[in-house]
Model the fold of this input.
Amino acid sequence: MSKIRAGDSSGVDAAPKRDFGERILAMAERLAAHSDSPSGLECTVLRPAHRATAADLLAWMGEAGLSAAIDGIGNVVGRLPAANAAVRTLVIGSHYDTVRNAGKYDGRLGVLAGLAVAEELARRNVALPFHLDVVAFAEEEGVRFLTAYLGSCAFTGRFDPEWLERHDDDGVRLADALAENGFAPTAIPSLSRRSDLAAYLEVHIEQGPVLIAEDLPVGIVSSIAGAVRHAVVITGVAGHAGTVPMSLRHDAAAAAAEIVLLVERRCAAAPGLVGTVGRLAIPNGALNVVPGRCEFTLDIRAVDDATRDAASADVLAEIDRIAARRGVSVDIREIGRSPAVACAPRLAAAFEQAIGRAGLRPFHLVSGAGHDALQFDGICDMAMLFVRCGNGGVSHSPLETVTAADVDVAARVLLDTILVLAESWRSGTPVITA
Ligand code: GLV
Ligand code: MN
Ligand code: MN
Done:
């Protein structure tokens, strides 16, 4: 079969032989069968379900005609190479780890859309002027080690070696979990692909209701909200639930309860600001013991960093006042910080062109959720395409849904966007520099 030059065919007039939507949903279903919990989807980094998921992705990438491998942190990388080995790489990615009791599409949808599109490009024998890598990032959710974006940070050279000392709930160090999986913790800096990156595109389920309200299958992300995250430990005085009078208690859980409501109140005070206590535990708690210790996480986000940082500063100062008043001590550790970032207008314009060619209305929206795309900011241009969520936009929940028809549109738009980028290259006005 002779090579088709990109630009000779668009995703519109050369429709793929396969139905992308049905195929992607079938693959997502298959991946969701790998779970470390019997009561819902749980795929956290470097555990058995994670290994099984990576193995499926690796096999599918190979079957799709990509040269595929798993890197030293568990990122699954499949490459459709350009004829000229010296050019740089367009990366299509998202993550394959999940939260606990997760939906099937958060992260995986973008990986599988990239995979299906790369397979179609390989099937059509399209010669791209840049390498195309489909990357399934090993970790984005921050569930197991309370450190998010491990996969994309390793990929972009932003991995902080201090993270290797973080422990999971069972006391396992990240460094030891890596070694158990056959990965060398000290080799993580060598995984960086920073100098080889031309651009990054990510397809992701919206995880909100905006596209439902707009009656659109896809939307272009204009910017991604930043987050600041803290781990908080309150230490009070444990005591007998029957004998310690209320006025003499130093109840760590009661202090935490007051803080949860403080976060809710402060973060309701500005539009686009959100704050969440997502993990809350009373270690060794018992029915008849006044809690002596309470641990929780704090996640505060906004589309602009100043709003987020002001809320975070207010909350931390008020936590100190609550602790002093209640006679408990508090230890607060910052465990993550990502700035709000804007997506590259030139890539957004390529999405717009592809969406227009598909006969749809281009629509731009902000992402309140964090994404691997954040880690590419400042390294290469990045952009994201959101896919309409069902069930009112619910995500981080087994109720998360998408339709095959919407996924099909997203994959076709992604395919055509890659062709738009290739066309721009060939016409001498490249949108991305390969
Ligand atoms: C990722 O799911 C996030 O926390 O935004
Ligand atoms: Mn998520
Ligand atoms: Mn995600």
The chain has two domains: 20-224+340-426, 226-338. Residues 1-14 have pLDDT under 50 and may be disordered. The first helix runs from residue 20 to 32. The domain at 226-338 is CATH 3.30.70.360 (Alpha-Beta Plaits).
